[in-house]
Write a structure and sequence with these properties.
6-phosphogluconate dehydrogenase C-terminal fold, elongated
């Protein structure tokens, strides 16, 4: 299969590594940084530049860009995509990207499917990319009602072949609502948590819990700012609900209510047990 990858950072670069490990694929890449292009060529993860000719020959085009950049790329290049080809964006929000790309796909006659790989690292860029990034990870896909079954089967086969542990079918609204909790809220919480003056004294006073809660505090600011803003309604709702839950703990402490505090803590333990039971049942 002829594959084009736009953006060779952490996600795009890792996809290139994984795709080239499957012998039947020809992988072309494009990145705005000449140094990244040179390194990707030298590493052999792409066989050439994704120029206009290669773009027109692509059977699968992967957009590993920020949301607005992905839409802008398709606005500029949509007419170069062959009818029948499949375009998958890999952005962390889905509804706004779909709204921008789907009309182009309809006009040109190619298939568009929203995607989101559930894998990442605290660092970014091509240097952080590697072929095992997606091993065992979940790949989310948001097909359209008229996405051909054979196109969806091709995507599932492709993502499983490069290491993903499974493919989950969802839709843009559900994706953005759930991801606001599972990913975006976690990054906001971690980023806010480290702003305590006591964080500077943590060295001899912290263990695994501090490391766990602060792991994603150091984030790629431009990307996450865009993702948060594009999904702000869902994210605001999650932040507000978390603040309300935290307030109940503070109130129990303020009132000296040991029984109430114990009940809150047990409730959290019960929720965690339910989450783990659900995870085990899906394994």
């Amino acid at each position: 299969m002829i594959i084009g990858i736009v953006g060779l950072g952490l996600i795009g670069g890792s996809l290139a590594h994984g795709s080239r490990s499957v012998a039947r694929h020809q992988v072309y890449g494009l990145d705005t940084d000449p140094g990244t292009m040179a390194r990707a060529m030298a590493d052999g993860v792409i066989c050439g530049e994704l120029n206009d000719a290669a773009l027109g020959n692509c059977e699968l085009l992967l957009l590993a860009l920020y949301p607005q950049a992905a839409v802008d790329f398709m606005v500029r290049n949509g007419d170069r995509i062959s009818p029948g080809a499949c375009v998958v964006d890999l952005c962390g929000v889905k509804q706004t990207v779909r709204d921008g790309i789907l009309p182009i796909a309809f006009h040109r006659g190619f298939h568009y499917v929203g995607g989101h790989p559930m894998a990442g690292r605290e660092v970014s860029g091509y240097e952080a990319a590697h072929g095992k990034l997606f091993t065992g990870a979940s790949m989310l896909l948001c097909p359209e009602e008229d996405t051909p079954p054979e196109t969806l089967a091709m995507l599932e086969d492709f993502f499983l072949s490069i290491g993903f542990g499974g493919v989950t079918i969802t839709n843009p609204e559900e994706h953005d609502r759930v991801i606001a909790y599972t990913s975006q809220l976690a990054h906001v919480l971690s980023n806010a948590y480290v702003k305590s003056p006591n964080a500077l004294c943590h060295a001899q006073f912290s263990g695994g819990s501090f490391q766990d809660l602060t792991r994603v505090a150091f984030l790629h600011v431009p990307m996450w700012t865009e993702l948060f803003m594009l999904n702000r309604d869902h994210l605001i709702a999650e932040i507000d609900e978390l603040c309300q839950r935290l307030a109940t703990y503070a109130e129990a402490l303020r009132q000296g209510d040991a029984q109430g505090l114990s009940a809150l803590l047990q409730e959290g333990c019960d929720w965690k047990e339910r989450i783990m039971a659900g995870k085990d049942s899906q394994a």
